[in-house]
Design brief:
With 136 residues, this protein is mainly α. Helix content is 76%, strand content 0%. It has seven helices and no strands. The longest helix is centred in the N-terminal third of the chain and has 48 residues, at 2-49.
């Protein structure tokens, strides 16, 4: 009887150990996927804010940066990722002291993902959009 109880306990411990390894593996895969997603979004934001088209790079209008053919594809990709992009960009805005073109582009994308009415826009910078967002 005692041998059987010992075998059952060893089996249970082994199963728990295996499940913990599987859980750790899944967590590592998720972290890896998240890092890849973040790198993709950062790359696309970099493409938008550093366009190949010199005419756009001379513009002071942030909306010109998301209208270009290549940049528009990158911008649409970011917006189509929906909540995942939104959460990433909100985190970026929360942890950034910068208030440049990248922050403005992220604010435009967040606003679009949230389906905010463009006519009711009451912000002039990415940081200002974020400040209004966290007040809500």
């Amino acid at each position: 009887m005692r041998k059987r109880l010992t075998k059952v306990m060893i089996t249970c411990i082994a199963i728990l150990f295996i499940f913990s390894l599987i859980s750790c593996s899944n967590t590592a895969e998720k972290v890896s996927r998240d890092k890849t997603f973040e790198q993709t979004i950062d790359g696309k934001l970099n493409n938008i804010t550093n366009p190949k088209n010199n005419t756009v790079s001379l513009s002071s209008n942030p909306y010109d940066y998301i209208k270009g053919e290549d940049s528009n594809k990158d911008y649409k990709y970011i917006v189509l990722q929906g909540e995942k992009s939104l959460n990433y960009m909100l985190n970026q805005l929360a942890n950034s002291d910068s208030n440049g073109l990248k922050e403005y582009i992220m604010a435009i994308a967040c606003s679009e993902i949230l389906k905010e009415n463009p006519a009711s826009k009451k912000w002039a910078s990415g940081r200002e959009w974020y400040a209004n967002y966290i007040k809500k």
